[in-house]
Design brief:
The structure holds 2 protein chains of 2 kinds. Chain A is α/β, with parallel strands linked by helices. Chain A is built from 8 helices and 12 strands. In chain B, helix 21 packs antiparallel against helix 22. Classes of the chains: A alpha/beta, B mainly alpha.
Amino acid sequence: MAKPVVRANKLLVGYGGAPVCAPVSFTLPEGRALALVGANGAGKSTVLRAVIGLLEPSGGSLTVLGEDVDERSVQFRAKVSSVLDDDAYFPALTVAEHLYLTARGHGMLGARELVDELLEEFGLTEHGRSLPTALSSGQRRRLLLAAGFVRPRTLLVLDEPEQRLDLRMRQALAERLVAEKEAGGAVLFATHDAELVRAVADRAVYVDDASSPLLGADEAADRIAAEPA
Amino acid sequence: MSDEWSPDPVPGEQHVTLEGWPAVAEADLGEVPSAVELRRFTRKAARTRAGASLGSLLGDVYYAIVVAGTGVLLGLGIAQQLRVALPPPPVTGDFSLSVPTLVAVLLLALAGGLLSLAGRLGPVGAGGAEAAWWLGLPVDRRALLRPAALRLPVVAALVLSLLVGVLDGGLLADDGGHLLRGALSGALAGVLLVLAAGLAQTLGASRRAIAVVGDLVMLAALVAAVLLATAGLSFDRLPVPTWSLVAVLAVVVAGLALLMDSRLARIRERGLRESGSVASQAAGALVSMDSRELGRALSDGSARPTRRWVSALRTARGPATALVTADLVVLRRSVRHLAQLVVTAAVVALVTVLPQLATELGVVVAVLVGGYLAASATAEGARRAEMAPILDRLLPLGPTAVRRLRMVVPALVMLVWSLAVFTALGHWAGNLPGWLALGIASTPAWAAAAVRAAYRPAPDWQKPLVSTPMGALPTGVASVLARGPDVVVLGMLPLWIAIVLRSVSPTLVMAQVVTSVVAVLVASSTSTKSFMERAMEAQEADRTARGGTAR
């Protein structure tokens, strides 16, 4: 039996006591992927922030890895890998060194080889010795994504990972996330990309002002496609 | 969601477990390095690529010491001159404060200011890269946060020891051991306050709550001054800290530091990120000498994260009134700026009734500084528009009209402020109607100064540097920073003359009307160049034109 990695029951999130969306309920087991879809500003990122402990839920219950969320716990940080849109870098560390810092910081053995592999996978080999400020916006996004995979994790949380990626990299990312599931990892991601939902998600939650039941991947992708541009 | 989904292991993937949970990892796991090792790795890389030579580092240290030393000597000189120039305290029972009481009130206000600042800055935070790349690591966060936690206490110790030293040595004429013990006590008290704020942060107190406590202490200093002066209570001298008190303070500080260190890892990541972000913004504003950005960093960062009430904007009947209404809403929503208006008016009024401070020079300084701070509080709408000129661009109004309309709210508010302050001036110098007329006449100049300062361009660092004993002075920056204060000084010359003469005449009121009109015209200009630069450009253009004609 797959254990539930994330369990949200009538989870209410918001700022200053004002909820940003209707309560959401879902369970994400090991080896599965759940997508949060919805319009801009619907509250997808806010839900993700609650899951990784950057925001206290306003109501309902939320457990990650069987416990209440507390990012101050070393064990929580060891198991939960998140890729938000943190476009901030140490000005003196190269691209490879950022990844090395993350890998070593999590106790990965053979960190240098691992970093080289990920640089190649994310098309950054030529930029390994560059400072992140010298990269394009899309390349910096790839660096952030690589950092999410360079460390061990039980739960991978991604906020609109498709942003600023070209088509080829989006396809590679989808394959990566499918492999993540197949390896037993749980993936929770917010997205506007119907193709990514179809390729990766097992279920989806439509985040909106009104609560909605869990959707299948195809149904969620259709709703994304139906959203006004 | 069904629980029967089961993961299918893929050959070739590494499978490890983390505390009973299966984990995906592309390599085997070893021992997690210590936080100190990670910090060292980051620092080493930074040092390798910093590009700063030992010579330039020593040069920076030299300039820092010279600037601090010169500042202290200047402050000491001014304080000593003040002590000599201040009139003797009047007979007991009159509305007055002795110099030691004034120093005590200043120290209390200073403590409140420090606490407020510590609250607004966190005081512990991790911003930018540190938040993104360090906070997610499964290491003891205390060691990662220790340098950030130390920064503000060290700065507080340095600043407080210097300020207390200047007040003690300058105004109270203490020297030798007294001065040393006073400065040491000041430094330790500064550290104590910041550590207390830090401890409150580890206990989950919000930055806003800590800042409000600091603001209340500052307000208490003002109230205490009024009450003491009203009651005619003054200290003849302040108690001199003994070595035993210094030792006790040091022990308390050490204990508090250890307690805070043990609790550093309890601060939530969200709080660390917010504090770090505010500190980075404030540090950037300081380096670029942008007081507007500094104000935004310190006020926005500690604002309550609630949704605002929706204003009906009933007074918006067209583009012009919409702009004025928007400015009014911004001001009404900013309690800090409203408090700033009240406090500055109260301080100026207090100065006019305290015999030791109510000299012509004291009143000029109080009206100038208090008035400029009050006027700045009224121009929040203009400052925000300078950063993000959304309404300026959306509304069908020309840039000059926008500037003039942005002066409406500051002028209205400063009119009320002036009525209060100039009533006090009328009591100080006699001829209340005359002073009220002068106050009303000067109102547009305050508004002009506030708007001119709000719309000043970013400092120009490419202009030539002028070498001074205190280091290089960037002239491009100085000329930009003078925009606003220049209007206060020059646009209110008749007011300053009236205060110095302690007399107001119809001629001075008329002259103030004229200079206020000129101030409004100057502040309505959208040119970012100084008068001298425009004159030189005109001269150059004229010369080019003549050369062309000659050919």
